[in-house]
Write a structure and sequence with these properties.
Layout: H1 2-41, H2 43-46, E1 50-53, E2 56-60, H3 132-147, E3 174-175, H4 177-190, H5 195-204, E4 206-207, E5 218-220, H6 221-234
Antiparallel strand pairs: 1-2, 3-5, 4-5
Length: 235
């Protein structure tokens, strides 16, 4: 009996010591070491890839933002503020989802197939309302209308895919150089700038493929708009 109690007490003591040691190693030492390495070697990324303007944090390079006009009385969907470069459509999990406002409560794709709403294999005016085809056609028409200026008419063939479709998460902060280029004339006109100066701004903020072969060239919309704001202030 005494041997049994002694053995049990010894096992409990060993288990308790192991628990304390593992708690200290995995719950205190390991997190502190990883945090220290991250802060020392990857300070920017470890703190959320923050972007600052005028000394204040205005966002993250990893999360998109909206550039809309204030809601008017009776409006449910704000209109885009066309003096700024616009990001991708924010459909995410659906037009009524919380992440249409770039909120991080949830994110995801609509999971609609590429031919959702297609008629005879094509997206047409007959496509069912609310379908992917109908959304793409409406978005394309809006892009053409918004970005056509007095001296530059946008054609349907110029509209890239990322101008009319949301990303898989609905939170994408980047657009393609083609979509940024398409907005140059409109942004120049709205801000009383020359097309050449705005185009140079886009070129300066176009990032190439990661390591030269991964991904696609891209333009971070927030960084581009911060640079645009600075250019307008100087002008």
């Amino acid at each position: 009996m005494n041997n049994s109690v002694t053995t049990t007490a010894r096992l409990l003591g060993a288990g308790l010591r192991a628990l304390l040691v593992l708690t200290l190693v995995t719950g205190v030492i390991y997190p502190l070491v990883v945090t220290g390495i991250a802060q020392a070697l990857f300070h920017d990324k470890a703190n959320g890839s923050e972007i600052k303007a005028d000394g204040k944090v205005v966002g993250s390079s990893l999360i998109g933002q909206s550039y809309d006009l204030p809601l008017k009385k009776g409006q449910e969907t704000p209109e885009p503020d066309l003096k700024w470069f616009q990001g991708r459509p924010r459909n995410g999990l659906g037009s009524n989802s919380v992440n249409t406002q770039y909120k991080l409560i949830l994110s995801g794709a609509t999971n609609r197939s590429a031919d959702n709403g297609a008629v005879d294999g094509k997206c047409t005016a007959k496509s069912e309302e609310g379908s992917l085809c109908a959304r793409v056609l409406a978005a394309r028409a809006a892009v053409i209308k918004d970005n056509s200026t007095a001296d530059h008419q946008v054609s349907a063939s110029e509209v890239p895919a990322d101008a009319v479709t949301s990303s898989g998460s609905g939170l994408d902060p980047d657009i393609s150089p083609a979509y940024a280029d398409l907005q140059v004339h409109r942004v120049a006109e709205k801000n009383d700038l020359s097309v050449a100066r705005v185009q140079q701004l886009v070129d300066d903020h176009t990032e190439g493929r990661t390591l030269g072969f991964m991904g696609e060239p891209r333009v971070n919309v927030l960084e581009l708009n911060i640079a645009l704001e600075e250019l307008v202030a100087k002008s």
